[in-house]
Amino acid sequence: MIALDLDSQIQLLSRIQFLTRFSSNLVQVTGEPGAGKTWLSERYLENWANEPTQSLLICNPSQQDAQHRAIILRQIVRDGVFNEQDSMLQSLEYMLEGRSVHALVVIDDAQRLSATIIAELWALVTESQQREGWQINVLLFSLKGKLNKWLHKVSYGQGVKPLELEVSPLADNEREMFIEVMMVSRQLDAAQRRALKQKAASLPSLPGALRGLEQQETSLMEEKKRRSPLPLLILVLFLLAIGGGIVWWSMMPQTHQEEVVDMPDGVKALADILDEKEQEMAAQANSDESMSGELKDSSVVLDDTMALPDTPIVEGMTVGRRDQDRRIVVPDNVVDAIMDDQQTGGDGTNAVTEPLIPELAQPENATISDSMTTELETPEMLTVQESAAVETAAATTPPTPSTSASDVPMANKLLLTVPKASYALQLAALQSKAAVSDFLAQYELQGRALVYETRRNGEPWYMVLLGDYPTVAEARRAELALSADVRGLNPWAKSFTQIHKEIGLVN
Fold first, then answer.
1. What is the pLDDT of residue 369?
2. Does the pLDDT value for residue 374 go beyond 70?
3. How confident is the model over 328-345, as a mean pLDDT?
4. Looking at 105, 135, 166, which one is the last position of a domain?
5. Is residue 415 within 8 Å of 506, Cβ to Cβ?
6. Which of 25, 122, 145, 266 is 20 to 30 Å from the Cα of 258, by its Cα?
């Protein structure tokens, strides 16, 4: 689906940005099912959020309060130590140790949160409003009317209250634009366009409902494509067989009754001829049995060499035997060894331990001169693939203690080519190349992680990234597939919009 920036959605996102720019607030964004709340939450994190620290929580029915606290706190304070049973405010005070914080917490499907977590989020916002150096904004994307009861209880009797914004349905012009984009992406003809518009007229003006129509049409088209013509073909063949049988039956001549015909003198009847033939065959069979009995009783051995086939001639069956030039017959085991060596990346020469022709074997004391070795190893003789392999091996080889820290490659230019809508998992933020080199060697990330340089307060910082994911949710799911030691670093999803901004700070 092509990304659409509708006017109503842009106005909503700009209001959220204005409310969270200068102070701490808890904003509830509500809407009907299918209003696009999940898409808006991801869109805000990608292109509208300005906070340096961001946290995303996608609520799941199977999650507990301790898991919700752990997901939020690990993204705000990386490598922080806390107790999952303590409140989020207590854990932040313990981990920050008097330092300032500027963070944004976005929670999707917030109607699944418990009353305890909602109270802790409200306490976190109110404490940030009173404490200098703290600014924490919380965005709750939920169904309409599901959190009003708990938010009213936690804010009762206080001077400030949570804010609520509603995702309104699409306007008429936005609805038409949305349907047109759906038809363009599917490349429908005129009749299919009219049918789609007629079906969409009965649906509410919500992106989810309209997208559901597109998915329904797509599934119907795929089901029609999957229908096999085999049953129809079997039916046609069955009808053809019945029709052919009827035509054959109608054209078959009818059987006439046998008539008694008087045969003239000197002419035998057919039955008499058949009886004579049967008698002759019986007499022949008896004579064969008597002859075989006589052969069994006789002690004479008959010569049956004439019944044997001639001796096979193998001349010319070997390839190249009649050629004047000399041919080489390669044994099967040598061919198999050469093929195995080529599959493992070799050229096959190492698989032959003995020369196929003794005259071509080099003497044991024959060695390659130093000048020839030098000539073979010059850079001019390397192909493009070999040079790329050398560079890749140099980039992926773990640094040894004698390796200089300046050899750590920077991926600033490469990362600028990645779309801003993508995400990566940030593993570490370090202040020296030596620390980056030790970090990559410790967690065996050479060749997998990318490092870029940025500036913070005029000082260089080096960020270690892993992966390229189209959405925040996929980046979170990819974190679960990492090894235990890397997952213990508590990676957090970072948008390439923010990554490009940080790369731009380097002059």
1. 35
2. no
3. 55
4. 166
5. no
6. 266
pLDDT of residue 141: 95
On whether residue 438 sits in a domain, the answer given is yes
Cα separations in angstroms, 460 against 29, 384, 408, 453: 38, 35, 14, 7
Amino acid at 152: H
CA separation for the pair 313, 217 (Å, rounded)? 71
Q: What is the pLDDT of residue 228?
A: 62
Taken in order 80, 86, 88, 91, the sign of the CA dihedral is: negative
pLDDT tens-digit readout, 241-253: 898 888 888 877 6
The enclosing domain of 69 has a CATH number of 3.40.50.300
In the listed set 166, 198, 232, which residue is the last one of a domain according to the structure? 166
Cα(138)–Cα(110) distance, rounded to whole angstroms?
11
> Tokens in use for 440?
């990559």
Helices (H), 63-114: 65-76, 88-96
342-348-352-357 Cα dihedral, nearest 10 degrees? 140
Q: Identify whether 400 is part of a domain.
A: no
The one-letter code for the residue type at 133 is: G
Q: What is the DSSP letter of 169?
A: P
Residue 476: closest CA among 454, 462, 495: 495
Contacts of 41 (CB under 8 A, 6+ apart): 29, 56, 106, 108, 139, 141
* Containing structural domain, residue 480: 405-504
Confidence of residue 210 (pLDDT cuts 50, 70, 90): confident
Query: What is the amino acid identity at position 474?
Result: E
- Based on the structure, what is the number of domains in the chain? 2
Give per-residue pLDDT as tens, 169-195: 888 888 877 777 776 666 667 777 777
Give a yes or no: residue 35 inside a domain: yes
What is the CATH number for 466?
3.30.70.1070
CB atoms within 10 A of CB 15: 14
Q: Which residue has the tokens 């203690």?
A: 401
Residue 417's nearest CA partner among 499, 331, 302 is: 499
Which residues, at least 6 apart from 28, have a Cβ–Cβ distance to it below 8 Å? 110, 140, 142, 147, 151, 162, 163, 164, 165
Which whole-number Å values give the CA distances from 236 to 227, 247, 248, in the listed order? Answer: 17, 17, 18
Residue range 20-65, pLDDT digits in tens: 988 999 999 999 888 888 989 998 999 899 999 999 999 999 999 9
Q: What's the burial of 423, exposed, middle or buried (CB within 10 Å: 0-12/13-18/19+)?
A: buried
Is the confidence at residue 288, as pLDDT, over 60?
A: yes
Q: What is the pLDDT of residue 180?
A: 74
The sign of the torsion formed by the CA atoms of 57, 61, 64, 65 equals: positive
Q: Take residue 435 and report the two structure tokens written for it.
A: 């620390």
Calpha distance 321→324 (Å, rounded):
8
| Res 231: pLDDT | 82
pLDDT at 320: 45
Q: Per the domain annotation, does 98 fall within a domain?
A: yes
